[in-house]
Structure formats: structure tokens, C-alpha cells
Amino acid sequence: MDSIIEVQRQTHEELEHFERALYTLLSKPQSTHETRLQTEHRASQILDRVSSRVAALTNAYEDQEARKAEIDSLSSQPDDLSEFYTRLGKIQEHYAKYPESGPSGFELELAAFLDIPPEEAGDEEYEEDDPIALLFSGEEQYGKYLDLYANHTAYNNLKHIGKRLGYLQYLDALLAAQSSQVHSELSKECRLGRDYELYIKALHSYLLSFMKRAQPLVDVESQQKEAEAEFNKQWEAGEVGDWEDVRPSGGPVENGEGIWCAACQKMYSKQTVYDAHLTSKKHIKATAKQASSEQPPSNPNGPSTSQVAEREAASPLAVKSKHRTAALLTSLCTQLLAGLAPVLNETKSNVERRFSLTAREREQELLEQSKPKAPPPNASGTNGENGADEEEEEERIYNPLKLPLGWDGKPIPYWLYKLHGLGVEYRCEICSDHVYMGRHAFGMRALGLPNTKHFHEITRIEDALALAEKLKREGRNEIFEQETMEELEDEEGNVYNRKTYEDLKKQGLI
pTM of the prediction? Predict the structure, then answer.
């Protein structure tokens, strides 16, 4: 068993290493949302280790008996070093048995926290190996947005809800929690139902889970405990209103056998059957008759009206105590939504943007999201390496015939390649024996000839001059039309064709 003093010293050392690792981790610049969230999760894990070691260190300091026994064993006989040599022998024996021991478990744990994230290491498929990405659904997009579609469906299925809301309207209703309690727009009858309690419980579970996943450095548990303590004070003081049962005259009285209608003097086994008979003519007539009478008839199988009144008077909070859970969860959800207000606003903007897209654009967006993202630039890689990676991606174009690339960076069609004769070499005497791939007429200006289609595939100076003389003899003056079509501009901005410009210049007019 290790010395308690040595354990304390080692724990202090580990705490210092964790603090340095936390500083190193949080001081790195975070260029993207993904890297920031990964860093926060690692920092949260380091803080958990720090908390556990601080608790162990506190317990060690509080164990005064073990510390006193350790000190006494070392200082009882100053001249006797037997205990020292006994411990030294155990240490030497350990290293003699394990001479080439690798790094300790703590060193491996610390190295794992400071390891380069997968996207910084250049792994193109880092998303598949990223444990943080597995925490979020596709709709949440790595913690950027909330996925409240299931809660929205449950909200619209509440009893006595009145008007159903669209998804954007539902998000607006949650955003209203910043100024008042969440779902204050619902009627009292709706909030006192059992289905509302189930709904608000599911909403609270999701918001709490998302808060822990998307904001790991926020101590959401402490915030929830403070909000619950504040709610308990208000509940005991009776400041949390609108959670009492509505008990109108002639209304239903529940007991173990069913629901008793005082107006109709009849027992109904189910709530749905009771609700259905409320609109019948018989019930309406019985209710009107009961209103005109002095004493309403009581339920023969249940407690009397006086007993119910005495019970409610004895305990004012007894009627609303069964709704305490729903009231508490509503208050806790309000506190969570206040912290998630920026994310909720981003979620609404994203939903509005997606609603404006066509079906084809949505499919294209899903395809782009499913593709692995290229690793972002980082401090560990140089610009030259990133540029080389991009060039390698561009060179992966399938081009077995080695066709020239077009304006879009893709190989041109093969028929166009054959049409222009790009597979034939032309050594042009006119262009100082330059070799061209395909037909050309670029160097004819050097001979005073226009670059027209008549001179395509002409590579010798003698052939070009002979063809020009032949065209002149045949009256083909169109080869000289370019001289008259070419436009020149003088110093004052006047535009002339080439022949007129040369004539005016010879006369000294320009």
C-alpha cells in the first residue's frame, strides 16, 4: 500500500498537469463550430477528473489517523532507517521486475486529451470516428439547432388545446418564455390535464439533454437545482397560481368507481363517456334544473358535498398538490429555454430558410451534408501542404484519353477534340518552327495577312504567300476586309477604321 503522503503528493502533481492541459486546450483558436464543441467536451472531461481528484485529496487530508500513523512510522526513531530502506527496496524491486515500463495510465489519459482532433490530423472520414458527432441527430447538425418536431406533435395532441400551431408558431411560443412562463398561452383546463404533464416532462428531458450535449461547460445541474429551490419557496408561499382544479357546480366528482354527474344523477365509467354526454339535451336540461334548486343532489356512492368542503378547507394546497410536478417542470423548462434562446433563434431562422427551398434544393442540401467535409486549415499544417492536397483532389478527374481541359476544368468531348484536330502536330515555319496541336492561323500577321480560315493548316511561308496571291487573282477580296474592319482611336477619342486612320495621319489631320 502506498504512503498516504505520497498519494497526496501525486494527486497534487496530477492536478497541476490537468490545469496546464486545460489551459493548453482552451488557448487554441477554434475556427469552426465543430472544433469548438469538441474542445469544450474535452475540457469538461478534464474538469470531471479534477473534481474527482479534489474530492479524493480532501478525504485524504481529513483522514488524520492515517496521516498521523504515517508520520509516526517515519519519525519514531530518527537513527533507525530500516523503514526507509524497506520502502526503497520495494521500489527497486518494482523497477527491476519492469525495467522497460511504458507511460503510466495517467500519462496516457493526459495525452488523449491533448491529442490532435481527427479533422486537424487530415482524416477525411473523421466524422465517422468522431464520438461527439454521434451525440446529435441530423436535424441538430452537431448542436447548432434544436430538434423539436416530436415535442411539436405532442403539443398539438394535447386535450383542450384550442388552436393547433405550425412548427414556426410553436418555436415562437417557446421563445415567448423569455418574458413569461412557457406555454402561458394554454388554457388552465389544458395545463391541468395528465397529457400536459407527460408532454412537459418530455420537453424538459430533451432540453436538459441538449444543454448537456451542446454546452458541456455550463453547469446546468446547479442551475436546475437553484431554479427548483426558488420554485419550492414560491409554491409553499402560494405564489404559483393557476394550478388549482376547476370544480364548477354540478361538475364531475371522481371516486374509485367512476365519474358522478350531479345534474343527471348518473355514474359514468370513463372520462370520454362523461365528456360526450355534456352536450346532450338531457344534461343541459338537468343542469338548468339544478341551478334553480337550492341544494344540489349528492353522489350516493361518494363523499358528500360537506365532506369535500371540509377536506379542501383543512388543506388549501391539497387540491393543487397533484399538479405540483407539472408546475415544477414548467418552471424548469422556462429556465432552460432562457439559456437556449440564441440556439432557438438560430433554429427558427434555419427552419424558415429550409421552408423557402424547393424539394430539389433540399435533396441537394442533404446530399452535401452527407458527404465527408474536407479538413479545415489549421496551425499544424502549412499552406503548401493544404495546396498540394487540393491539387491532388483536382487531378483525380477520370481522363484516360488525356483530352484537353475545357473552361470548367473537365475534359472536352472527344468529338470536339477530333473536329479541331487537336491530336495532330503542326510545326509552323511562320511561327519560328513552333509546334501546335491542332489547326491554327495565329502567325499570319507577321506576313501581313489576316488570320482567316483560308490559312488554316498553312505552316510554310511560301505556301501562305502563294495562297494570298491566288486569292487576289480570283477576286477574293474578303481576306483584306479585316483591314477595313479594324478600328483605331485617336487622342481625342474619335474612332476610325484602319485605312481611314492611316490616310488622315498621312495628311497630318490627326
Answer: 0.54
